[in-house]
Design goal:
Layout (H helix, E strand, L loop, with lengths): L20 E10 L6 E9 L5 E3 L5 E3 L8 E10 L4 E4 L8 H11 L14 H9 L3 E9 L10 H12 L4 E7 L6 H16 L2 E8 L6 E2 L21 H14 L1 H8 L2
Antiparallel strand pairs: 1-2, 2-5, 3-4, 5-6, 7-8, 7-9, 9-10
Length: 260
């Protein structure tokens, strides 16, 4: 149960203490006659002023109303029967890992909720049938809160970057032909970092495979086209409809993940 659920929105929470931005789920409703919910994950940035400009080169601040912030949105569909979340990628919005953090703060009683990206059918087959890991190549950034990661190897890698006062790291580990249990554990750590949104590169070279499995590039992603309203923003009905069509198009990959 989400805390602070009032009609169609939840409590606005800061993910990190002292932040001047808050996150909440907004405009959430059950699709009439459907088997899913639609909604928006909103990020409100306070303490900032947008700038407006004229073509003569002049610029002026825009004063927002008291209590208002700049809002950035990611639209989503949620299918409860399968725990399937279809999440809009938006370069000015939030990565799905922020929604994951928000849910872990907002749901009562507290639970460890993970949003696991779904890979393509081909990638799953390669991970399952491809034998032992031979090379793991990963780059990741330093998180604000390392305590949320339970994997010991992930914690060790984050601590190493922290000790060096670094912001990001790139690690590539390879082994010979003998079975290496530790590298298999590092593979799992790479998967954790990719799922959490920290990783920018996450590739695993498997035994007897010519090409690595890319845990980021091989995710199920669809490009959609939507109508724009008069204000230049995406039309929400068009966006939700296109997301539903994307789900239908990727049914084969979804059946691989969930089972038929």
């Amino acid at each position: 149960m989400l805390n602070g659920l009032s009609s169609d929105h939840t409590e606005a929470l800061a993910l990190d203490e002292g932040d001047d931005e808050k996150f909440q789920i907004r405009s959430i409703v059950k699709v009439p006659g459907g088997n899913c919910f639609k909604g928006v994950f909103g990020r409100c940035r306070f303490g900032e002023k947008p700038v407006q400009a004229k073509d003569d080169g002049t610029e002026t601040d825009v004063d927002l109303k008291p209590g208002h912030g700049l809002v950035e949105k990611n639209y989503f569909l949620f299918f409860p029967a399968k725990n399937l979340l279809v999440y809009q990628r938006n370069s000015t919005g939030s990565h799905y890992s922020r929604l994951q953090r928000y849910l872990n703060m907002a749901i009562a009683p507290p639970r460890a909720i993970g949003l696991e990206p779904i890979l393509t059918t081909d990638s799953y087959k390669r991970l399952i049938n491809g034998g032992s890991a031979r090379t793991v190549d990963i780059s990741f950034q330093q998180p604000k809160d390392a305590t949320i990661y339970k994997d010991a190897l992930v914690q060790d890698a984050i601590k190493l970057v922290g000790k060096a006062h670094g912001l990001n790291a790139r690690i590539r580990i390879g082994v010979g032909r003998t079975k290496n249990t530790l590298l298999s554990n590092i593979k799992e750590a790479a998967i954790v970092l990719a799922q959490s949104g920290l990783a920018r590169v996450a590739r695993i070279q498997l035994e007897d495979e010519s090409e690595p499995v890319d845990l980021i590039a091989d995710r199920i992603v669809e490009t959609i086209q939507v109508k724009l309203d008069a204000n230049g923003r995406p039309n929400s009905d068009s966006l939700y409809g296109a997301m539903n069509v994307a789900v239908d198009k990727r049914q084969d990959d979804l059946k691989t993940f969930y089972g038929s």
